[in-house]
Design a protein that fits this description.
20 helices; Amino acid carrier family protein; globular; two-stranded parallel ribbon; 74% helix; Na/Ala_symport; transport; mainly alpha; 468 residues; Amino acid/polyamine transporter I
Length: 468
């Protein structure tokens, strides 16, 4: 019955109903227009904000740590296994649509991260917390909708998504070294517990150290493979474009599969619009001290995740001759592709990369779930203990579950979160536009960039007088 229910919901969200595909495209276009193409117009500005972004306080983590934390959640299974799934089910054209949803998603990610920072609160330890549940409750005064989002997030990031990451790690290590899945699952639990017990700041420090190292290393390997196969690059790019618009022999059926799988896996990877990233954005001490600065920082995260890292995996697979198949391929397709480029060492490299990528996601997922304990007055020792036990238990379950079953539950959780969050941020468009224009005006005039309550009109109000 559970599998039938999950299948029904996913069919509405992702399948015949295509609810999410329409919502995500419409939302991306909506905010691209409303914000004047901010992801293109201010493309260079989001990089400039990295300068001086490593300053943190006792209240929150630095902007750079927030970026690395959000990337550690984004950069995981979706970048290696998810891209493989998109190609195996949707062909090369799925990559084009993954790029498109990322480009539009940059504007969506900007919008939701601005709200996350604007409506943040302090928890019982004086640290910043925030996210969709917080801006829905404060900005829209819809407590029931905020609770609904929090429950979806607990189910997704608190439990199911970490199971997906664990499943991919164990599959990669089992394929490469025949490691028993149950022992790998126990090892993941032990390592994750050591980090998450220290809370958000411990997770942010871990992400700040690991994410740049693993991301740069992976991209360098992908660039080397691309240069070695440079003669095949034009044909590969042409194949991506032709497949994206159904210009291959397969026709319309291939077109639908390319669009569906490209958008679905693109969202799962970069998370733009899902409502996850605002939790990291809210926890940051912005530099400059304006909520919109976090919009730029997290917009950069969408770019790095999909347009850089996912593209790296796609090139590795397609340059190895990867194409669609009748079965859902996961991390093993990426391992096989890497092996064709690097020999026997390719499987080892991907096993190490996915283990590191997915593990950082496992850890960051915990932080997102923990942020919402505050909504239910469970931000205490007992609440954290119960949440932590459930989180670690799902890791062990995911390590041994079947791949399609785990992905289906993850798609449902992500889909439900995204529906609620998109409704909320579109509803709050006046606030997003108002505060963004305030930032744009101050930036262009060279005025003091600091934001204070009353500088522009917003819906509802932020608690605790943080911006007073």
């Amino acid at each position: 019955m559970i599998n039938e229910f999950v299948s029904l919901v996913n069919n509405i969200l992702w399948g015949d109903g295509q609810v999410l595909i329409i919502m995500l495209l419409a939302c991306g276009i909506w905010f691209t227009v409303k914000l004047g193409g901010v992801q293109l117009r201010h493309f260079g500005h989001m990089f400039s904000l990295l300068k001086g972004s490593n300053t943190s306080t006792k209240d929150g983590i630095s902007s750079f740590q927030a970026l690395c934390t959000s990337l550690s959640a984004r950069v995981g299974t979706g970048n290696l296994a998810g891209v493989a799934v998109a190609i195996s089910l949707g062909g090369a054209g799925a990559i084009f649509w993954m790029w498109m949803i990322a480009l539009l998603g940059m504007a969506t990610g900007f919008a939701e991260s601005v709200l996350g920072q604007l409506y943040k609160v302090r928890d019982e330890n004086g640290e910043f917390r925030g996210g969709p549940a917080y801006y829905i409750k404060q900005g829209l005064n819809k407590t029931w909708l905020a609770v609904a989002f929090s429950l979806c997030l607990f189910f997704g990031y608190g439990f199911v998504f970490s199971a997906v990451q664990a499943n991919t790690i164990t599959d990669a290590l089992n394929n490469a070294y025949s490691f028993p899945t149950e022992y790998v699952g126990l090892a993941i639990i032990a390592l994750a517990a050591l980090i998450v017990v220290g809370g958000l700041k411990s997770i942010a420090r871990f992400a700040e150290f690991v994410v740049p190292f693993m991301g740069i290393g992976y991209v360098l390997v992908a660039l080397a493979i691309t240069f070695i196969n440079i003669s095949e690059l034009p044909a590969m790019l042409l194949d991506i474009v032709k497949s994206a618009f159904g210009l291959q022999e397969a026709g319309a059926g291939a077109l639908g599969a390319a669009i569906k799988n490209g958008i679905q896996r693109g969202l799962y990877s970069n998370e733009a619009g899902s409502g996850s990233v605002p939790h990291a954005a809210a926890s940051a001490v912005p530099n400059p001290n304006h909520p919109v600065s976090q919009g730029y920082i997290q917009m950069l995260g969408v770019f790095l995740d999909t347009l850089v890292l996912c593209t790296s995996t796609a090139f590795i697979i397609l340059l190895a001759g990867g194409s669609s198949s009748d079965q859902m391929e996961g991390i093993r397709l990426t391992q096989d592709a890497m092996s064709s480029h690097l020999g026997e060492g390719g499987t080892d490299f991907v096993a190490a990369a996915i283990s590191l990528f997915a593990f950082t996601s496992v850890v960051a997922n915990y932080a997102y779930g923990e942020s919402n304990l505050h909504m239910f007055k469970l931000d205490n020792k007992i609440g954290r203990a119960v949440y932590t036990i459930g989180y670690l238990g799902m890791i062990y379950w995911g390590a041994q579950a079947a791949l399609p079953q785990v992905w289906a539950m993850a798609d449902m959780a992500l889909g439900l979160m995204t529906v609620i969050n998109i409704i909320a941020i579109v509803w709050m468009t006046p606030t997003i536009v108002s505060i963004s224009k305030d930032y744009f005006k101050k930036k262009d005039s060279g005025a003091n960039m600091e934001y204070k309550a009353g500088d522009c009109e917003i819906q509802g109000k932020s608690e605790d007088g943080i911006w007073d």
